[in-house]
Design brief:
This protein is α+β, with helices and mostly antiparallel strands. About 55% of the residues lie in helices and about 10% in strands. This is HNH endonuclease domain-containing protein.
């Protein structure tokens, strides 16, 4: 187990495809299985093998209450549904008169799925198996190696109908998957923190619930603990400033290309979605098309180095027009204990360091032209 694995996990969480919640469900399921120390986990050379059926069980537990909820909880971008939504919704409807979620799970774990639902559950299980192995397992890790199945390997079996479908059937008849041993070790040690059960916030909430004599719920406490002041994307001051420059000098240049532009967006150098920062130094004009390409990506230290003269020029203009605000903001955000007199070189250096940290340590996607 080493830092490379931890950095890779961070990149997977932040950079790999986020068009659906499949990636999160796969990682959560694998971590839960490892944390539960399932006796079905086996070790072959440098890889750890786990029955795919255990993941199918986890996905049933994760998505059942989501699809059952009266509140719409989007799980995929756009207007399309999860590929197994219809199959699972059909099962959920069937169990409404049989005791609901808990009754379904008791059947799966103990009594077996009722005979009249065997066919539907068989189709649902196959759909989940195919979704798991052909989608998140295939694509997880592409941000690291650009290869398919770079971390997860799987071996599917031909699934035959069983007269008594239950958890044991899923485990024995739906094949296996494997992950590298070092990822297994990382998930075993830190998995509960990644999933959140042992996170500081969750433990904080549990303490408050116990201290209240169980008069509060973890959900209620978390809602309050996680509240933060609303920070709006505010670029009005910067827009006004660059409009004045355009009227005075007749030219504004794209911070990333250096090309003269008449129509432009105000770009957050470090994206607002990642660092809710409306400091003037972080708001510079960019060609609209270039800004759309950059979106929520982090500028690499290399592109900052290439464009540092233009960035410093803009910072100088901002300082000339808004000296007190600029000085206060760049001191707190970038310079720290360094003298304000060093704002040009140290400011650029610290901006590069911040972006490099977000890319290399936090796993956000780097961007350059």
């Amino acid at each position: 187990m080493n830092n490379v694995v931890f950095n890779n996990i961070s990149k997977i969480i932040e950079q790999d495809s986020k068009t659906t919640t499949y990636k999160f469900a796969l990682l959560r399921g694998v971590i839960d299985i490892i944390q539960e120390n399932s006796p079905y986990i086996s070790f072959v050379e440098s890889r750890v093998h786990i029955p795919t059926g255990l993941l199918i069980e986890k996905w049933l537990l994760y998505y059942y209450p989501i699809l059952q909820s009266q509140t719409s909880i989007p799980q995929i971008n756009g207007e399309t549904n999860l590929v197994f939504s219809n199959h699972l919704s059909k099962l959920i409807f069937a169990y409404e008169s049989r005791g609901g979620f808990s009754a379904f799970y008791n059947d799966l774990k103990n009594r077996g799925i009722p005979e009249d639902l065997q066919s539907d559950f068989y189709e649902l299980s196959k759909k989940l198996r195919d979704t798991i192995t052909k989608m998140p397992m295939k694509y997880i890790g592409r941000s690291i190696t650009n290869e398919f199945y770079s971390i997860f390997k799987y071996e599917n079996k031909i699934v035959r109908r069983n007269l008594n479908f239950n958890i044991e059937t899923l485990i024995k008849d739906f094949g296996t998957f494997s992950i590298p041993f070092e990822y297994y070790e990382a998930f075993k040690i830190l998995g509960s923190f990644i999933n959140g059960q042992d996170s500081i916030l969750f433990k904080w909430a549990e303490f408050s619930v116990n201290a209240s004599g169980n008069n509060l719920s973890v959900h209620k406490v978390l809602n309050e603990v996680l509240k933060s002041p609303i920070t709006l994307r505010d670029i009005k001051e910067s827009k006004k400033l660059y409009k004045e420059i355009l009227q005075k000098e007749g030219k504004v240049y794209c911070v990333w290309t250096g090309r003269k532009i008449s129509n432009y967006d105000i770009d957050h150098l470090i994206p607002f979605s990642i660092w809710k920062n409306n400091d003037l130094w972080n708001l510079l004009p960019s060609d609209s098309k270039i800004n759309n390409q950059k979106r929520d990506k982090i500028p690499t230290p290399e592109i900052i180095e290439r464009q540092k003269s233009l960035i410093i020029d803009y910072w100088g203009i901002i300082y000339e027009h808004q000296s007190k605000r600029f000085q206060k903001e760049i001191q707190v955000a970038l310079l720290g204990n360094h003298s304000f007199d060093t704002w040009k070189n140290i400011g650029i250096s610290k901006l590069q360091n911040s972006c490099n940290y977000l890319i290399e340590s936090r796993g956000f996607e780097g961007w350059k032209i």
